[in-house]
Every structure is written in C-alpha cells, then in structure tokens.
What does this fold into?
Amino acid sequence: MNILIKDTLAILYENGGYITKRTNICIKDKIIYAIGDIPEDFTPDEIIDGKNYLASTGLINCHTHSYMSLYRNFADDLSFDDWLFGKIDPLENRTTPDDAYWGAVLSCAEMIKTGTTTFTDMHMFKNMTAKAADDCGMRAVISRGLCGEDESGGGARRLDEAFEEIENFKDNDRISFMLAPHAIYTCNTEYLKKIIGLAIGENLPLNIHLSETRYEVSQALEKYNMTPTKYLDSLGFFEQKTLAAHCVHLSDEDMEILKRNNVSVAANPISNLKLGNGVAPVPKLLDMGVNICIGTDSAASNNSLNLFRDMNFTALIHKGVNEKAQCVSAEDVYRFATVNGAKALSLDDTGELKVGKKADIILLDLNSPSLNPHNNLVSALSYSANGSETDTVIIDGKIVMRKKELLTIDEEKLYFNVNKIMERLSK
Amino acid sequence: MNILIKDTLAILYENGGYITKRTNICIKDKIIYAIGDIPEDFTPDEIIDGKNYLASTGLINCHTHSYMSLYRNFADDLSFDDWLFGKIDPLENRTTPDDAYWGAVLSCAEMIKTGTTTFTDMHMFKNMTAKAADDCGMRAVISRGLCGEDESGGGARRLDEAFEEIENFKDNDRISFMLAPHAIYTCNTEYLKKIIGLAIGENLPLNIHLSETRYEVSQALEKYNMTPTKYLDSLGFFEQKTLAAHCVHLSDEDMEILKRNNVSVAANPISNLKLGNGVAPVPKLLDMGVNICIGTDSAASNNSLNLFRDMNFTALIHKGVNEKAQCVSAEDVYRFATVNGAKALSLDDTGELKVGKKADIILLDLNSPSLNPHNNLVSALSYSANGSETDTVIIDGKIVMRKKELLTIDEEKLYFNVNKIMERLSK
It folds into this structure.
C-alpha cells in the first residue's frame, strides 16, 4: 500500500543536526520512497493530512522483557532480592506461554501508544513474544535468555529452544534474532564459550546483561579476578557484535574495552534507579563515542514500557548527578532512542526518517500542551513529551495506530485477559 | 450542581494506608457529600458512570511559575547563567501581561489534562495568573515574587502590587494568596524583615526559594556566616507558616530547623536535575517527618507541568542515588502529591477523597496500558502512569474536563496564541 503524509512537520537529519521542516512523506509498500516533492510516479492509496502532526522516525526500545508487563506494579519498593526471589520468581514459575503472550501484547499496546515501533526482547517464552510482536505489527529483535551454570543440561535445552525459535520465524522480515547469554553470573565459562562459537558460526549478534549491580562486579572480581567486561573480553565475547544492557558499574578500562570493540550500550535509567543499582556513566561513554541506546527494561522494574519516560530520565539524571547542566543534550537523547538503537540491533534500514529506510514513522499531535509553543520540537521529545502525544503509528509501511486507536490490538479483550491472568498467578 | 460518580474504583485512605475500593461518590455543589451508599436526600443532576475509572483526589503542584510555559523547550542544555541571563531574562523583559495570561492558560491546560487540580504560583504577572486559573476553573494559591536588594524602591512597588492582587481576588474562594520573598539573594535583610512583619500582620503564609543551588549556600555563608535556612531562622522568618521550594543543599542543622518550625518543603526533582543543581535530601526529610510536597517548577526548567512525571522522578531518583530500593515508597509519593500539598498550601479542605472535603477529583481511564493489570493502582500512579490516563477532572464541584476534552479552555485558540506570542518574543 502507498501512503502519503501530506504537509507535515518532520524531524530530519541535515548537515550534522536535527531540524524540523514542513514537507511530504511518501511511503511505497514498506519503504520511505520520497520526502519533499511528491514524485510523479507515486499514487497514494491513503492520504494522511499531516498539518497538525510532528513526524518522527519511531522510537527503538533496546532492552525489555515484554511478557513481564503482567507483573507491572506488583512488587515495588523492595530490595533486589525480595523483589526477584520473593515476588517475581514465584509468579514467573506459574506463568504459562499463553499468559506470556498476553503480557507481551500488553507491552506492544503500551509501546505503540507511546511511539515505539521496534523493540528487543530477552528472556523466556520467545515464540510467544515473537508471535505477539508479529500479531501487533511491531518490529522486534528477539533473544531467548540463555542460562547454564551447571551440568544439569538446562543450558543445552535453552540453546535448542533458541534455535527452534529462530527457525520458526526465519521467513518473517519484521522479526530477527540475537543470541543472549543472560549474564556472566548465570552462565559458566564453558557455556559462554559455546554460545560465542555458535554466534560467530551462525552470524548472530550477542546480547547480555552487563555490570548491572555492584554485586555482579564484586562476584566477578572474586571468581575471575577480572571485571565482568574484562572477563567477557578475555573469552573473545566481543569479537562478535554485542549489545550490552545496563553497564552501570564500569571501570575506565571497561569503557575502553567496550569502545574498542564497538559494543553498543543500552542504558536503562529507570530500572537502574528503581532497583537501587545506581546511574550508568552515560556522559563518559558519550564522550568516548560509544554507541548508546535506551531500554526500558521490564515493567516489573520500570514500571512502564513508555520510552519517552526513559528519554526524559536520560536527558535529566546525568545533569543532576554530575551537577552539570550541559551534559547529555536533547539531541543526544533523541539519537540514542532512534538511530543508535537501530545500529545496536543491526537494523540499519530503520531509525531515520530518510528515503530508502523502512517506513517506521510516528505522528505526534502538535496540538498537545507539552509540544507548545513549538520552540524546539527535538527538545520537546526529550524533555517535555510524555508519549501520549503519539497519534498515529506506521510500522513497516502499515498503519498500526490511527487517531490514538490501536488497529492491531483488541484493547478490551487485552485488559480483561491480563487481569484474569494476574488474578490466577497471584493467588 | 450535584454529580454522582457511580460504581467507580476509588483511592481512599483507611486504617493508616491507601486502599482502592469500588464505591459511589456524591458531590453536592462544591463538596464531597457522600462516599459509599447514595443518601436518600441526594438527587444528582449529572451521573458519571464510574465503572472504567479510577477516582483519586486531584494532584497539587506546589511550585511553579505558570506564565513561563511560553518558554518551554526554548533554552535547554545550558549552564544556569547562560540559561537565565542569556536566554530566559531577555524573553521575560519583553513579555507583556497579556502574553503572560496565555502562558498561564497553557499551564492550566497541561495541568488539568494531567490530573492537577490545584497549583501554587510565584513570580510576576500575578493578576494574569490568577485570572487564568480562575477562567480555567482551577484552584490556585498565588504569590507575587518579591525582590528588594537595594534602595531603588522596586521592593516597595512589588509589595504594593502583591496587596493589590490580593484585594482584586479577595471574593474568589478558589484563589488564595501567600507572600513570597523570592530568595535570600534577591532580598536584603531589611526587606525580608518587612515582609515577615506584613505576613504575620495579615496572616499570610510565606513562600520562598531556599537552598536551590550550591552558590546560594556559599554566598550566604560568606555574607552572613550562616546557611540560608539558619539565616532565615535568625530573622524569625519561620515563625510564620512557610513553604520552602527546592531545599537541595541542606545541612543536618538546616533540616532540624525546617522540621522544628513545621516548614513544608516543595521538592522539584526535575528542575533540580535539569539545571544541574543536584538531588534534594528527600529520604532524610521524610524520615524526620517533614511535610514534603512536589512542584514542577516552570516549563523553562522542567519542561512540563505534568506532575505525574515529577511523581515518577520522586519515586525513583532517591532509590538510585542512594542505591537503596526501599526509600521513598509509591504511597509516600502519592501523599506528597496530594494531602501533603494541601497542607503546605493551607488548603485543609482539599487533597483527600473524603466526605466534607472540596470536590477536587480526577477520574483516570482504567483501560490504559500503564494501569494494567490492576495489580496496585497507588503504585501505578507513582510509577507507571504518565498523566495521560486522566479522563475527567472535577474542581470545586465543577467538571472542567470530560472524556479528555477541556471544557474551560479553547485549545485551538490557545496554541495559536502562544505560538504567535513566542514568534514575537524570540525575534
């Protein structure tokens, strides 16, 4: 289908910076075919009047566990151990694949409504997460969380599952995969080496939780006499393209290793605050030129998958903690949440409003208090927007939300189902 | 007019904690007349079906400068001096009272849309701010910012203006007043003493910016050999009821002084981060039993007046900075944003969903992703809501927003005006 977004205000990247410009956007099938004058050979099937919209490339959520939205607001204000072992784990052990599907649909509903068009998801129930993303029309990069600490065989089974899932969705061009050893404290050295070998052999990028807590670092120093980053580097982990989530507690040498190996870092500011883990050294990584992107983490530790909130936190928290108002600009944050995310996920054909890229586009209602006056609309996205300005969402050239109504999700059924599921799980 | 909110889920305070309960809320004229069974003598003029709503008392924004929403996203990522003297001051000097009115209406639009029913406003153009609040149907506590550093007479003029404004709105029971010496660094000792005397004589509460920046503290130590708090205490400032905004840089003795004098502290987490001022010692003040409330500050340093965002930050930032997930709970934050705010503003008849209190009520759409599943809806308000869940707002018994449509503000005209104003001011 061809869509014309006519006479819209668009955020474009020109001459090394973001600008807003009134223009037309022509979408042909899945691709941005033209921006500016409407080509003579372009006949739209649908015309969207863009006059009152701000068009942006869709946001990219670079770390989440989407089925866990079932557990939103279930366990708050607790220590990490009480949160995980006392509250979340028992729920998780009772969660069925069908429950997980509805949790993932809930996440997709929240992400679409708040302007996210692509997400990456790590953990369990990956067939169900991939199916939810596909049914909701989202773009997703999926990875089965791989744990293998002992000889019990669980690690091998999980790897088998990961490859089955990859096989199941191999013909779906909105769903791609990474291999995700969960963390160094849930994978032994042998298992990590096996995964690295498979990743290189199958040319699959790697995704891992890294230096999320002080405890992870102190454990690694005790066990390996190395930081988690240095330990992974010693195994050759970073020879394969890697997305590392969290990276809160990094030494200067760790940062050098990440930079040298072109590792992308997914900052998860809200989750790191909520669980009392601290604040990642984003300004330093930014100065070094590391590819930084943003993740929400799950709704069990956020408690939302609204990336605009994490953009707000990313723009603000480093200024306050470092007592320096000039670090991490609005434009930096917008880049983290869009094109940097695409790079991190090896999706080079999205993340920018540019001819030839995939048509993953959000239209924000310019008649929203948070966007007025229109003094600086890139600043508005990082600083004042709350996500609810999102009016229309196009993913892969298909309209999945129009005038704030989800077209791929039955919301009434969704809310009925997730509440029924949690009534059962929390009994 | 009598309004019945029928069969709604309501956040009520019972047995020392917040609970949610399905119930009816009867509003008679401006007052909550009954919660629970509908009294026989109550005849509603309007019935709102509450089935899909979460009813809460409205939020209270305890520090802002509402006309400054004109400058939203105009000056970001700058040092405090470049921000204030390079960008904001020149705009402010060109701003007319009529411009300020539209800036304040923009703030009211954003506040109502995101569930705030009461705000307090300090700075200039107070006739216009009070008029905007009144026209929009909001409850507001207004205070002319009083500066008097020298003998030029400006301080006396500002005091005259303050009392004129009080006189102008003396018959309006939604608009009340405080006296607001701007800060210790913009008022000399004599002027402060004069204001304290007038405040005591007229029985007007006091409102002041306090210990917002490290520079303010170091200046006070140099000039008075005392911290700002100790200096004000030495003048007898706190003998009158006081709301102190910011309080980022407090010594242990300062906190003791604030507690001993029942000073309310308005935390402004986002503004303090954005301007690189730091993080207020909220957990310590909370442990001491200080009455903490929350302010957005202006949209020039936030960049939004959506109090849900500041609730999110308040619930999260102290956990991260102190690396302690158990400090400042969801329930604490909800209390800060409601009943504590009412106490701080001497509005003892609002801030709670309780029989006999003013009918300042917000209805949130339960069919929002951020509120689902309904695992813990008080947590939801502090952690996952972004404000856009607000569907219906009742202030002083009058419906000012219904089904997300503002009934007291012409939004099209508002956005046209504020953009036209900023085009002129920023030339």
The first strand of chain B starts at residue 2 and ends at 14. The domain at 2-57+359-406 of chain B is CATH 2.30.40.10 (Urease, subunit C; domain 1). The first helix of chain B runs from residue 80 to 94.
